[in-house]
Each structure stands twice: as structure tokens, then as C-alpha cells.
Amino acid sequence: MSEWQREWPAPAKINLFLHVVGRRADGYHLLQTVFRFLDFGDSLRFEPRSDGRIVSATALPGVAPETDLTVRAAAALRAATGVTHGVTLHLDKRVPMGGGLGGGSSDAATTLMVLNRLWRTGLDSKALQHIGLALGADVPIFIHGRAAFAEGVGERFADVSLTPAWYLILTPAVAVPTLEIFRSPRLCRDTPAIAPGDWRPGLGHNDLEAVACELYPEVARHLDWLRQHGDARMSGSGACCFVEFAQEQSARAALASLPADMRGFVARGLDRHPLAII
After folding, report:
1. Does residue 14 lie in a domain region?
2. What confidence score (pLDDT) does residue 277 get?
3. Which residues of 2-16 are buried (b: 16+ CB within 10 A; e: fewer)?
4. Range of the domain at 250
5. 178 and 155, same structural domain?
6. Which of 66, 112, 200, 213 has the highest CB neighbour count under 10 A?
7. Domains in the chain: how many in total?
8. The domain spanning residue 119 has which CATH number?
9. What torsion do the CA atoms of 217, 218, 220, 223 make, to the nearest 10 degrees?
């Protein structure tokens, strides 16, 4: 099968914790977090065009074509390398939008990594991460490609070793705008920083969770239900929430007991992105 005919994965992520440790003069928040990928996500297919245009074949609700992250990623790679190729982007969307699972960022990262290969532009991981950071703070981690402790605005990484785990992820039927959470005057912005080497699984919390729960009671309701199964947390700026299990069977048993008005899925944690550049 030609690489132009392949389906390329764009895995979701969860934040095992997320602390806001400060704020830069330009308004960007300084974060500490641990990213872990999931064996669940979107997929993309790329079709060459002879007219030099970059076109998305997938209309996303509430997303204008010119703001589509896959289109912007393709255009950014082309601008950075001087190539003039066109492409049609086909996206199979599974990750909930506005859920804190990094779907749009992962789509952009896969677009950068795959078109770098298909267009033979020859950029290394660091160069692709630099392009990706201009698209969104979470894009670089997907290009970095390994579970990592992240700092800064999310662009400085220290790889971490995590134990095998399965996650029950709940998907409340609300989309939480990231900017709304970060702009809230109630957001804690002074959690003491920790050294990457001092972090251990289970340590920390999500500073964004309290604000999201206050603004979106459905997030709080889903977290309350999950807590009967362990240390439940919100991922990113929400709305999705998760709890960890050591065994797949236990995670699926919990999913089977989910109330009829809640939705979720079970996914295995990954330590490496399937497209990670070595």
C-alpha cells in the first residue's frame, strides 16, 4: 500500500496531573504536567493535489476551514520548507472536541510528521516541534512522541517511565473552551513547582479542574461518579475525566456499570506515539 493511501494515527492524550506554577509577562501560563498517550484517537489520510491547494475534506462543527488545525499545520510546514505541494486532508474524528484529550493538537502533529515524510522535507523532530508550538501548546508533545514531564508552556520535556495501565475515560456532553478556563480569575496560578525527578505517579492534581467544575456542573458530576473507582481526575482543561486501572478487565467492568446518561470508553496507556521520530 502506498503511504499516500495509509491511515495515519493521531492518538489522544491525558494529563496525569496539571499544575499552573506561574504566568509570563505576555500572559501565557507556566505549567507542569505529565502527558501520556492513549491507544485511542483520530486517524488521517493524505491525498496529493496537483493544484497546490491545501484542502480539508472533513467539515468539523464550529470550525472554519481556515482555522482547522490540520490545514494550518500543512500550511505552516509548507511555509517553513518552501515546498509548493498541495494536499487534501481526510480526518476520521473520534476524539471529543473540547474534551481536554488533545485531539486537535494530535491531528496537527500527525499532519506535520506525515507530510514531512510524504513531501520529503527532511525536518527533524525539534524543527517540527518548533513549527507545532506556533499552532498550539500541546502540539510539540505529540511530535516529541514519548510520555513526558512537561514544563514551560508545555514545550520542555523530560521523559518518564510509567507502569502499564488502563484508563476509563468519561466524556461529558459539554465542550469546555480552554481560554475560558485560563482566563478565569478563580484559577490557581501559584502552585509550587516540583522538579521533574521528584514526580511520582499519583502525585499532584489538576489546577484547572475546580474552575471547570464550577462552570460546567456536568464535569463535576462525572468526576464524582468516577471517584468510587479511584483517584479520578480531569484531563487538560476538560471536560473529559479519567481514572486508572491496573487491569483491562477492571476498567471494562467499571465501564459496564456506567449510568445510562453517561458515556465513556476504555483505553490503554501508551508510553510512545506510534509515529515517534527517533
Report:
1. yes
2. 58
3. eeeeeebbbbbbbbb
4. 166-270
5. no
6. 112
7. 2
8. 3.30.230.10
9. 180
Q: Is residue 13 annotated as a catalytic residue, yes or no? A: yes
233: domain CATH number is 3.30.70.890
> What does the pLDDT look like over 13-38, one tens digit per residue?
999 999 999 998 888 899 999 999 99
CA distances 57 to 46, 90, 210, Å, are 10, 5, 37
112 and 170: one domain? no
Q: Which is catalytic among the residues 42, 68, 107, 138?
A: 138
> Quick one: cell of 228?
468510587
Q: Are residues 24 and 131 in the same domain?
A: yes
Q: Which residue has the cell 484531563?
A: 235
Catalytic residue among 13, 68, 107, 207: 13
* CA atoms of 239 and 103, how far apart (whole Å): 13
* 43/241 Cα distance (integer angstroms): 22
Give this prediction's pTM: 0.95
> Within this chain, do residues 171 and 260 fall inside the same structural domain, yes or no?
yes
pLDDT band, residue 278 (cuts 50/70/90): very low
Give the length of the chain.
278
State whether 66 and 47 are in the same domain: yes
pLDDT tens digits for 157-208? 999 999 999 999 999 999 899 999 999 999 999 999 999 999 999 999 999 9
25 and 118 in a single domain? The answer is: yes
| Amino acid at residue number 69 | L
Judge whether 138 counts as a catalytic residue: yes
DSSP 259: -
